[in-house]
TrEMBL record:
Residues 1-16 have a biased composition (Basic residues). This is Nucleosome assembly protein. One of its GO terms (cellular component) is nucleus. Residues 1-37, 217-242 are annotated as: Disordered. Belongs to the nucleosome assembly protein (NAP) family. It comes from Paramoeba aestuarina. Residues 223-242 have a biased composition (Acidic residues). It comes from the Eukaryota. GO terms for biological process: nucleosome assembly.
């Protein structure tokens, strides 16, 4: 009887070995590929949580300082941006051309938007990453909208994300207001300055990035030529030095 029990016990062990494969350290995977990780050490988890809390506290305590530095940095750039705007407006059809050349923003134009945006005269972004983004579009006289200057504010919150502040700047001329309620067919102006139900976070990010260096989109070839000329001049100087 004792021999029989030992034999059965041995057979059970061998059967279990066949059914299970040990993968890595402390993880057992059976034939049905179900992972059975060992329980997490409560002490390690508590220690890890404590360190994460300390990191979060540092972020919170420095948030105001970061905000002040960011605001100061932005204020320093403001007069330069204003001067840049004056220069850009001297280029023929600058903003209309730059927008049309942008691979993503140009694709956002629907229906009559394409013709309307040929009248785009100026784009201004007043951006404070910790508070808000204010965008202003200025159009020349056109057959579509009677309100030639459109301004919209989007408040920024770390938890709530971007929240549009309602505005009523957008005024369409009689018979020109797009009727589609489908987001894919809506006018870009309606999305940015009208309908607050549409998520515009990705679009705003693109506009802000576009505004930071629009000349690269307006005439990318010319910037490339200037860089090449600069490199050639440096190479010539190096050869002369040799």
């Amino acid at each position: 009887k004792e021999k029989k029990e030992k034999k059965e016990k041995k057979e059970k062990k061998e059967k279990k070995k066949k059914e299970e494969k040990v993968v890595g350290e402390g993880v057992v995977v059976s034939d049905d590929d179900e992972e059975c990780p060992e329980p997490i050490d409560a002490g390690l988890l508590e220690e890890l949580t404590k360190h994460h809390e300390e990191i979060d506290n540092i972020d919170k305590s420095n948030r105001e300082r970061i905000f002040k530095i960011s605001k100061k940095y932005y204020e320093q750039k403001k007069p330069l941006h204003a001067k840049r705007q004056e220069i850009l407006l001297k280029f023929p059809h600058f903003w209309a051309t730059a927008w049309a050349n942008h691979p993503i923003l140009s694709a956002e134009l629907n229906g009559s938007d394409e013709d309307l945006f040929t009248y785009l005269e100026n784009v201004v972004v007043d951006r404070n990453e910790f508070e808000s983004v204010i965008i202003t579009f200025t159009f020349k006289e056109n057959p579509y909208i009677s309100s030639l200057k459109l301004t919209k504010r989007y408040d920024i919150d770390a938890e709530a994300g971007i929240t549009p502040v309602p505005c009523d700047d957008l005024k369409w001329k009689e018979g020109k207001e797009p009727q589609s309620e489908d987001e894919d067919d809506m006018s870009l102006l309606s999305i940015l300055f009208g309908d607050d139900s549409v998520n515009t976070e990705s679009l705003l990010t693109q506009i802000c990035e576009f505004w930071e260096d629009p000349f690269e989109i307006y005439r990318p070839d010319e910037l490339g030529e200037e860089e090449e000329e600069g490199e050639e001049e440096e190479e010539e100087e190096d050869e002369d030095d040799e």
